[in-house]
Design brief:
alpha+beta; 2 domains; 4 strands; elongated
Length: 294
């Protein structure tokens, strides 16, 4: 496992290099949360962020947590530093629940707007920028009187740090971490792994990749086969694995697999499987099989 202190510096550097320096940028401190085996389990950050509109700003202090692929998990305010709305009115319990629902939705429509587009009226307020009506598209998902706070926190939770977090996790990849992530049996995590492995890593993590394929079906299996470099299909264990399961795959997944076998020397059991799949009708699948066993 790579040095976590070095990697904490890396995530801060990656974030700083991707953003312009201006008065609205947040201050933050990241830490990696490890499980009982010392493996990375999540990322947590203390964030001090301004909420600004024109020349008016106030600060929010908050902690946020993400999983290993950058999905926001939870937030917490600091003691005595609760969130407020217009006129310094504190958030209610219902407001905090609404904010949590918003932050846990990475596809929220609030992300489709610029900050200056959130309010229709432009009458000034002392705290939250404008007192006008919130646009209808987000009115039911933000905290009334706290629209700019909601917008800033959603950006922090779902956009500001995501790329740096995923880069960090990719840099942490090793046998133990990949195995831990695969055993979560989370489809999004599985896609994250196969989309971010280097070609020469597929054979290193062959057993974990085959475990993911076993636990899934349909498009994920096809996508995994297409992502796998040809070299892994020269491996006899990989060929034996697919020889036992090829009949259970749909037509398009079988075609994806057969295309990978071009120029590959086949094991006897895989040849036997292909022979059993041979048919007379003219199709791409049939032609691929004929070319492989002739």
């Amino acid at each position: 496992m790579k040095n976590l202190s070095y990697l904490l510096f890396t995530i801060i550097f990656l974030w700083a290099s991707d953003t312009a320096s201006n008065e609205e940028e947040p201050f933050f401190e990241f830490e990696i949360i490890a499980d009982e085996d010392g493996l990375p389990d999540a990322y947590q950050a203390f964030i001090k962020s301004p909420v600004c509109e024109k020349d008016k700003c106030y600060e929010i202090e908050i902690t946020m947590q993400w999983d290993l692929i950058g999905r926001f998990q939870e937030y917490d305010t600091l003691t005595g530093q609760g969130l407020t709305k217009l006129d310094h009115i504190p958030f209610t319990d219902e407001d905090y629940l609404r904010l949590e629902r918003l932050l846990k939705d990475p596809h929220s429509p609030i992300g489709d707007y610029k900050k200056e587009e959130l309010i229709l009226d432009t009458r000034k307020s002392d705290i939250d920028g404008f007192t006008g009506a919130t646009i209808r598209a987000i009115n039911d998902i933000v905290v009334g009187g706290g629209v700019y706070s909601c917008y800033t926190l959603w950006q922090l939770a779902n956009q500001k740090f995501t790329d740096s977090i995923t880069k960090m996790t990719i840099d942490l990849f090793d046998k133990k971490l990949i195995n831990k992530m695969v055993n979560q049996q989370d489809l999004a995590v599985n896609y994250f792994i196969i989309n971010n492995l280097k070609p020469n890593d597929f054979l290193t993590y062959r057993d974990e990749i085959l475990q993911m394929i076993t636990s899934n079906k349909g498009y994920f299996v096809k996508k995994s086969i297409e992502k796998m470099p040809k070299e892994i299909f020269r491996d006899s264990i990989t060929q034996e694995y697919f020889a036992k399961r090829l009949n259970s795959y749909n037509y398009f997944t079988q075609v994806a697999f057969l295309k990978q076998l071009n120029t590959i020397r086949l094991t006897s059991s895989l040849k036997k499987t292909l022979l059993s799949q041979k048919e007379e009708r003219n199709s791409l699948r049939s032609n691929l099989i004929k070319n492989l066993i002739q």
